[in-house]
Amino acid sequence: METDKLKRIFRQYLLGQAGKRESDTIDSWYQSFDNEPVAPLSREQEEAIRREIWQNIQPELERKKVYYLKRSLAAAAAIFLLLAGGLTYYMVNKSAPAYTEIASAIGERKTIQLADGSQLTLNAGSVIRIPKDMSKERRLDIVDGEVFFDVKGNPAIPFIVQSGPLTTTVLGTAFNVSAYKGVNRMSVSVTDGKVSVQKAGGSADVLVKDQALTYDRAKKTATVDAIDKSLLGWRQGTMVLNDASFDDMVVLMQKNFGLSLTTSEVKIRETRYTTELSTTMDPVKAAEVLAAIHNLKIEVTGHVVTLHK
Fold this sequence. Notes:
FecR; membrane; Ferrdict_sens_TM; FecR domain-containing protein; transmembrane helix
């Protein structure tokens, strides 16, 4: 009975026939959704819900030509959520695979062994998501950071790594993916075997041993060149800057040494930076070496390092 009553009130509200008390109650109820966290849905789930909403409201639109106000549209969405919430919950929480999130701290390198026999090494300040059940799907997501993969081959279940706009697929190989959120340049470097790298909305590139793909986030372009093995030195405790922008350098120094680099000088921001630093160095000492190589000076306040001429 209560469900039928609610449906009747919502229908009257949509048609503009509800009383002031009912209308105010529904308005307040809908506004409360602004403070509720909404679970993210995949593109497929969003499309399925969009189609079902349309199938529910289209007959009403054909029967009655009603000029909906903003609140009416909001209420229509709210009604659908009320009636289909159980289905949506099932889709999100039952159909989607369960994942475990693993992170490495600032300055930490972490090696983990997966259930399928593959081995992963995380660079400093990295976050990855791994499926709890790898017997059905081997799809990992690099949320932030850099990871070296030594993959155990299994032709029946390809090993897939999602890193923002790049999707790397392998059967059995060793490769490195650098995908720090705050760094413009991403890369996939193959040290053994072969991988396919698919760009979002674009074609795929096949990389073999000693090849690397570099992706420019800003320009959305990719190039394939011979691998620069010095960039893999992080596994041996070396942070490498190779023609890095100031902003990219700031991210890597923070991830490796916990320092926040800043400057008020435009010329310093426009400079490109190239150097190698041992990650075992004292953080301030590392900043001093970086500054000296580029003829700069530093001022240290806590964890903040200001660069100047």
